[in-house]
């Protein structure tokens, strides 16, 4: 998926989370979760070829997406709305993870076998977030601070304090709005007069 401002996508496990959250392009007015096939295509693009969806999954997938965006926005210092926490809590309850240990002794959280549809996708997203939380990349997946954008981007900046998906578009607009909002008092002694 193309990132604004030529940003690099999120690393490794977070790519699916980022791509799922960005299935709605608010600035462009496009929602790519229109049908069950759209969810299946997204999953297939990330190697999840055995997950099937039906049309009833679309509305819930959109709710999950917006709740994830709210969590990513919290990574910029905004509080997650209680409704989004409730949505995530309910969906995660139906998408449990289990601990898997491989032959080399490595442990990982994986979706419980037998999950289908949106529960399988939710569990996969959760497993990838667990990996990202462990490697400390999760807090750098952020939602743009521009409320007409909310694009989910990965903050590659050294300090990890980026607030907008791209400074040249959303950041500039926000700074211009703030500048105009402050207004500039007119100092009568500075206003040129004609003699």
TrEMBL record:
Coiled coil: none annotated. Transmembrane segments: none annotated. Signal peptide: none annotated. It comes from the Bacteria. SUPFAM superfamilies: Jann2411-like. InterPro entries: ABATE, ABATE_dom_sf, Znf_CGNR. It holds the Pfam family ABATE. Residues 140-182 form the Zinc finger CGNR domain. This is Zinc finger CGNR domain-containing protein. It comes from Polymorphospora rubra.
